[in-house]
Amino acid sequence: METDLAEVYPRRVVLVSPPRTGSTAVARLLWQHPLITHHCHEPFEACYWGAQGPESVAAILNNPMRVAVGDRVRLTEVPPGSGLLIKEMSFQLSTGQFDELAGLATAPPIFVMSDPRLSTTSRLRIVRELTQASTFPPFESGWPSLAAQVARCRERDLPYVLIDSEDLRADPAGMAAALVAALGLPSRAGLEEWSPRPGLQLVAPEVGALMGSSRRTDDPFYRKVLSSTGVQPRARVDWDREEAMIAAAGLSDEVEAWRDIHRALRADPHRLGVPAHATTEP
Q1: pLDDT in tens, 165-197
Q2: What is this structure's pTM?
Q3: Chain centroid, CA 29 distance in Å
Q4: Is 269 helix (H, G, I), strand (E, B) or coil?
Q5: Are 265 and 154 in contact (CB under 8 A)?
Q6: Cα–Cα distances in Å, from 183 out to 82, 92, 178, 180?
Q7: Burial letters for 133-146: b for 16+ Cβ neighbours within 10 Å, e otherwise?
């Protein structure tokens, strides 16, 4: 598969993140770049949720979405010289699968993150909508996997890029420029703005349904970002409300541990846009 992808795509970008951290917004930003022409969305999702094998990964990689149109085409129909973005959730990857994915990239892998309190409450709201569950397994926060994957890059001396979506919201144009430069792509203005695409189907219906049947017709994970027009400032957060929701889900201790991971990663020199010694908000 790596050989086939290399023959078609001289530029291959890999993006990994915990859920609900703004990774699809970063993907949308990268779609605006003319050299990113195709997208493969969470090729390992069916492996995690449906215990499917490598054939499910190949099915995604062999049928990429054309960014400009939103349809899926066979890999054999992709024009040589195209550019590929592969987006994946951190917790859906085993160590071997992460190594496989990182090995496909021609640029440093991108890790997207945000305040774990907000990623947790966002996931809680969506899980409740999909399954009426009041909580979720802590592993599916994606934070332990993210820490392990960054550590894996360090162990292998593999360059990587960290982007905090709060930094992106604070300076969309500046952070977009920094990200493009870090990936070795030509500079391009205006990547942080785009047209709404509410009808776009990122996940195949049969794959989305592995987590909740309603995802076949209206996927709440992508509803907001696909209807958006660009990177927006963060609305005012009621932290008391968010922390009460976390406590009710029985995740307070876990979120504190994830906040420690987040603080450490914000101090990582691979984080884009701000000095490495900067700290998070309260």
Answers
A1: 999 999 999 999 999 999 999 999 999 999 999
A2: 0.93
A3: 12
A4: coil
A5: no
A6: 16, 24, 9, 5
A7: eeebebebbbbbbb
Residue 123: name the closest of 257, 46, 19 by CA.
19
d(CA 246, CA 136): 11
66 Ramachandran zone, left/alpha/beta (phi>0; psi -120 to 50) = beta
pLDDT digits (tens, 9 = 90+) for 12-68: 999 999 999 999 999 999 999 999 999 999 999 999 999 899 999 999 999 999 999
- What letter represents residue 178's amino acid? A
In the chain the first and final C-alpha atoms are separated, in Å, by 45
Cα dist from 82 to 12, 34, 238, whole Å: 9, 9, 44
- In total, the chain counts a number of residues equal to 282
Residue 227 token pair: 């209807």
